[in-house]
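So, read this over?
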Amino acid sequence: MMNYDSVFASAIAELKAEGRYRTFVELDRHGVEFPHATRVPGPWIDEPGVRQDTVVWCSNDYLGMGEHPVVLEAMEKAVRTAGAGSGGTRNISGTSTDHVELERELASLHAKDAALVFTSGYVANDAALSSLASGLPGCVVLSDERNHASIIAGIQHSRAEKRIFRHSDMDELEGQLASIPLDVPKIVVFEAIYSMEGDIAPTKEICDLAQRYGALTYLDEVHAVGMYGESGAGIAERDGQSDRVDVIQGSLAKGFGVMGGYIAASSHLIDFVRSNARAFIFTTSLPPALAAAATASVRHVRWQGAPDRELLQQRASRLKRLLAEAQLPVMSSESHIVPVLVGDPIVCEQVSRDLMFTHGVYVQPINYPTVPRGTERLRLCPTPRHTEREVDELVSALSDVWTRLVTMQPVAESAPAELDTVGHP
């Protein structure tokens, strides 16, 4: 008979040999002192057995809203009023005033008729795309090759025909659209900001093509909401295209610092997804306290968040400039995301460990399958809460580790960058 555990153990050993084994760094965040935290020794990593203060440089809490007093107060109040959990799915006792208010706020933020909240951004993409593409007879989905795994899952689960176009390549997208009859339903799916490279999609050009060829547009704004646009509604707002994007999908866990995902669109489209998306219908809803906290965060970011948005860009620009001056391989980025190319999974892991243990800097290594082989990197995420001094200290620490670990040893030859399971199969 098969020894099942030996199969699992062998697979894990292979991951470790390739330098792709993922370790979870246990952190106790310092509340209102974000981005400071304490690293807690854990059993999953060969590490010094002492607690260590660290500065977090890879959090998706881009504006530090997870510790904002307005957000904490709203959550505490809702917990005492409504309790810890929601009690059920949205259809069966799990819809509260806090959920309804959050959806109204999100619809208003994006200037759409309605919005629908999910338990995560991943679930939002999977549920919305699978129901939309399967609900439009003969639908063809056109998807950027670098779209997130949740988008890929939603398209696969819809069983609709999919066509993949080269990253932000408008000529190829137009060619593919032109080859599909005008009366065939089409959805063009793309991201506002691609989180591993930090580049920004040509939103206007994509909307122009979609309009010309009769396609719906579905825009993932998860790494942009809160940080871009006059009110923090994202790249579509910044570029004046919000009214031309049919579905805007976002996250409540990044720029807004809480938890959950959502879509905003026309009332009929939202009602269709609400009535058909299995991952929505059969999932317990967010606790009211999370919904209340998210509403408070969205409102604050929308109406008082401009200074933090400006400071975020200042910190990101300073970090990019200092990395370039230190001759570190900072990758070109149009956004607040600052990737540093390493190109080898084992070296990438070691750089991350040395930054932590020697300098008290936490940056998680990013390896395959999150990025293609040969493009392993560190993904730096400055926030308005990082000081200029901490930016300087990060660059100094990275320069020290880079000199010892990278320039003094050859990087293992990697397979060329390829479109793999991080992208569409």
